[in-house]
Amino acid sequence: MTPDQKAAYEALTGLVHRTAMKIAELPKDQRGAALQLASNSIARGIANLGIAEPKLVEVCADGIAAVLREIEASGKPSGGHA
Question: Which domain holds residue 53?
């Protein structure tokens, strides 16, 4: 992995984890809408960078959802209650 690829990977995984943590802090009935909003925001950000890669948006959204499921299963996002 090149240094640029490593930096991009770390930025994306950080984005996924931070976003999932923020969504986990919301009431459960608001999380689906927040996940969709995050996906739309990521899509806009990627488009603004001139990257035409819809699969990247899907991978990020799937990653956020997976981390969110892990947080919910553990019962606590960053000290709160999932």
Answer: 29-75
* CA–CA distance, 56 with 15 (Å, rounded to integer): 13
Q: Measured between alpha carbons, how far is 71 from 44 in angstroms, rounded to an integer?
A: 26
Assign residue 78 a region (left: φ > 0; alpha: ψ between -120 and 50; beta: otherwise). left
34-74 confidence digits (pLDDT tens) = 999 999 999 999 899 888 888 999 999 999 999 999 998 98
Residue 82 lies in a domain: no
72 close to 24: Cβ distance less than 8 angstroms? yes
- For 21-59, the DSSP string reads HHHHTS-HHHHHHHHHHHHHHHHHHHHHTT---HHHHHH
pTM of the model: 0.82
What span, in angstroms and rounded, lies between the C-alpha atoms of 81 and 24?
Answer: 8
Q: How many domains does the chain have?
A: 1
